[in-house]
Amino acid sequence: MENPCKYEIPVFSWSRAADCGEKLTGLDGVTFDGKRSPEVHLPGSIKMILNLGGNALINQHGNINETARILQDESKVEFIVVSDLFMTASAKFADILLPGTSLFEGDNLVTPWMVGDFVGFINKVCQPVGESRFEYDWLCEVAKKLGLYEAFSLGRTTDEWLRAIYDDLREKEPELPPYDEAKPNGVYRYKPLPPHVAFEKETTDPVAHPFPTESGRIEIFSREIYDGTFSEYVSPLPNFLPGREGIADPAIARYPLQLIGWHTKRRCHSVHDKNPALAALDPQCVWMHPEDAKARGLTDGMTVRVYNDRGETLLPVKITDRIVRGAAAISQGAWYAPDRKGRDRDGSINVLTSSHPTPLSHGNTQHSILVEIKRAADAD
Length: 380
Prior knowledge:
Elements: E1 7-8, H1 14-20, E2 31-32, E3 48-52, H2 64-72, E4 79-84, E5 96-99, E6 108-110, E7 118-122, H3 135-145, H4 149-153, H5 158-172, H6 179-182, E8 187-189, H7 200-204, H8 223-226, E9 257-262, H9 276-281, E10 286-288, H10 290-295, E11 303-307, E12 312-319, E13 327-331, E14 369-375
Parallel strand pairs: 3-4, 4-5, 9-13, 10-12
Antiparallel strand pairs: 1-2, 6-7, 7-8, 9-14, 10-13, 11-12, 11-14
């Protein structure tokens, strides 16, 4: 069914939209009916959140302590529904918490993220455990209460939707076998195709196939971006431009270490954080150069405080020369676990990150965080 709301915001901006949505404009990435301009602004703030199978409500979002304040203020977000398999950091903020089904408890279709060479079938192997329910089923019941069941479901069951989606794909990909033939096999791999060359037409015949730029060609410099709100981060020539919370920030006098977030092999974002086998493979820690550690009286494996004005986290330090002096690193995705003093105890990097978005992409500033690290003598 058509969404009556024509506004869209960058995913990272949702907490600001809940805190003070009326202040967000096209300069913050807000679009109306697919169009962006400085005059576009949200008519109000987010009041209800449905969070299905996601940990970005708190854990994978910047500035966790500020986000928690917004979520706990019922004059702002009035109603939160979470459906998940685990008691994640985000699930703890739900007004209504529903147990979802795992991939073993129902039929579904899966394709690779963005691109890939297969279509997969998730085939049910057991009944839903306890009171777990597939989200589509209870959403249909909500739609009935709202008088929107037919518009929402088109009267289709899960199996009927899977068949319809697959048959629609077969019209575009005629090599796919019929649904009942492909489903029992679990995976269908496409036949090899010639390699796709990006922008082949534009580069071989730029006159007939110009790029959507003022010159019709690839532009290293963008006048539109330079004249926009992010001109401080754009230079016509390749120069060093100081970013937020970098070496030129006055805050470096109090927080002299540049903290960098990275993706670890033990998690996919926050997925598998509580998997004990993977935790043993790569224990959560903060990397630090030997000279920086020596100056602070730290030894390898010692529990330390990593902190700034936004929050602090306690975790072991890994002293290694595989990171440069003046920098530190924590892998992103660890579940937020505050103690009674409000200190995170599991190395969740987003207690330290800012809610200020990155320029242009409006993303998480996870690779530019000023912090200090000290011995956590009073950690307990």
